[in-house]
Amino acid sequence: MLMWLIILVLVIAVSVSAVVYLIKKFRRFSFLDNLKDKHPKLSWAAAAAPVVLINLLAAIFLNVWAAVIIMIHLFVFWLVCDSFGKLIRKLTKKTSMRYYEGCAAIVLTAVYLSIGWYLAHHVYRTSYSFTTDKKLGQDTLRIVEIADLHVGITLDGSEFAEQCKRMRDDKPDVVIVAGDFVDDSSTRSDMEEACRALKSIAPKYGVYFATGNHDKGYSSGRGYTIDDLRSELKKNGVIILEDESVLVNNSFYIIGRLDRSYDERLPIKELIQDLDTSKYMIVADHQPNDYDNEADAGVDLVLSGHTHGGHIFPAGIIGVLIKANDRAYGTESRGSTDFVVTSGISGWAIPFKTGTISEYVVIDVKEQ
Questions:
Q1: CB-count exposure of residue 94 (10 Å: 0-12, 13-18, 19+)
Q2: Omega into 50 within 30° of 0, i.e. cis?
Q3: Is pLDDT of 10 > 90?
Q4: How far is 66 from 158, CA to CA, in rounded Å?
Q5: What gap in Å lies between CA 36 and CA 173, rounded to an integer?
Q6: Dist. CA 124–CA 214, nearest whole Å
Q7: Which of 261, 223, 219 is nearest to 242 (CA)?
Q8: How far apart are CA 358 and CA 312, in angstroms?
Q9: Percent of the chain at pLDDT above 90?
């Protein structure tokens, strides 16, 4: 909790600094620069207008977090462009009456975040392949992993249903939902439609759900509880695993862990102590931050989400450096255990992804 409080304070501090800096920089444009001497108050008001307008439009048509992200990126790009401008003037020993740096910063921010918008809203299909010397009951076990839908951010219920049609075409044996299916902003109607969509994938051995930190909700304002979510999932044939395991086709286990945010969560060794370790063990664990214990327990495959692949660069790198996560994205092996972290089919609050993608994951596990 302390870490998130520190991050929130830093984000607020950077955002305020960004607004002050940008107002000063907008005042450097020639059409405002001419007002400085004769009408200083008017020049400040005119310089503040585009900053205020950008924030208002982003907050109204997207959300407050989107406004913060836009401000911070414009701030950073402007700093970079100003630094390059100073360097070029120093090298060429020339000055210019036109403020090209500001124009460049605005264009670069618009292009960069437009790409980020596309990456957040376009869902990719990412595939991985692993091998095992354990018997699976078939040559290849195909798993589809979904995480971090946060339904309503970039995909509403009906849009998620369209993605589920793509997953159905992959003919999965198993679908595993690795948490954060909903969050505080997800409406009940979207939640219900998304639950129905899971049923439509119709995998051979069913759909399995492990809880994420946002599924239980952080406020009571969304109009339904986690019990309502559980009820809707069960109504649509989804098997919920909360520190529970199930033996599928007498060949492999699916083990769903309670999210790390639950105090009652069991250690992985205790969770699997009565299982037949000669069978392949798949663990759904929303947050990827128990790798050493899971590898030491000898489970075969761990599927996680939570990080959103970093969501906004360089958040993923920072998360690993401060040990909030063992991995931000992709695959890793420790001992006999393979780990997969998906960047998620959507993300929380921010409708941009920079340095990562939105995806669902198809995993083929093959007998050696």
A1: exposed
A2: no
A3: no
A4: 23
A5: 68
A6: 23
A7: 261
A8: 12
A9: 84
Question: CA-based Rg of the chain, rounded to a whole angstrom?
Answer: 24
Cβ-contact 252, 280 below 8 angstroms: yes
**37 pLDDT higher than 80:** no
* Residue 159 structure tokens: 């849009």
As a whole number of angstroms, the distance between CA 213 and CA 289 comes to 13
The sign of the CA dihedral 143, 149, 151, 154 is negative
Q: Could you identify the residue written with the tokens 């009571």?
A: 220
Token couple for 307: 């990080």
Assign 95 a pLDDT band (cuts: 50, 70, 90). Answer: confident
310 secondary structure, DSSP code: G
Q: Which residue has the higher pLDDT, 36 or 249?
A: 249
Mean predicted confidence (pLDDT) in 107-123: 98
Q: DSSP string covering 175-192, please?
A: EEEES-S--TT--HHHHH
The token duo for 298 is: 């000898």
Cβ atoms of 198 and 165 within 8 Å: the answer is no
Tell me the average pLDDT of the chain. 94
What distance in Å separates the CA atoms of residue 355 and residue 69, rounded to the nearest whole number? 14
Q: How many C-beta atoms surround the C-beta of residue 17 within 10 A?
A: 13
Cβ contact 255:274 at 8 Å: no
Rounded alpha-carbon distances, angstroms, from residue 237 to 169, 176, 195, 209, 228: 19, 13, 9, 11, 14
